[in-house]
Amino acid sequence: MRCYASYHDEMPATREALIEKLAVSLHLSVPEKRLLGSDSVLVEEVAAVLKRLLEQNGVLPPIASLWKPGENVFEGFFLVKRPDGKIQMAWQRSNPISPTELAVQGSSEYDDLDEAI
Q1: pTM to 2 decimals?
Q2: DSSP string covering 54-111, please?
Q3: Quick one: DSSP state of residue 1?
Q4: Rounded mean pLDDT, 22-27
């Protein structure tokens, strides 16, 4: 029988750091994958890291931002913590031949991070 940590149990620092790197960069090196292990990464582990990062930075991944004219478009999905406590999941894509031109943008709103995850 396998025992999993409950949602509020603390993860080992190395495992948490690896999950954080994976959540932010979407990549782990082969040695990092070995350190993480062959077991599945639990949704609860990822959720705990996402919550901490969003509280720290207000946006996840930290390099993401809503497009402003003249800037390169951050492409993909990202989470934004709004001042009213709601979470916005935004997405955007640039024009294929002009990275500073917005092609499409959208968002969904959630009451809290648990709902967004």
Answers
A1: 0.74
A2: HHHHSEESTT-----TTSPPPPEEEEEE-TTS-EEEEEEEEETTEEEEEEEEEEEEES
A3: -
A4: 84
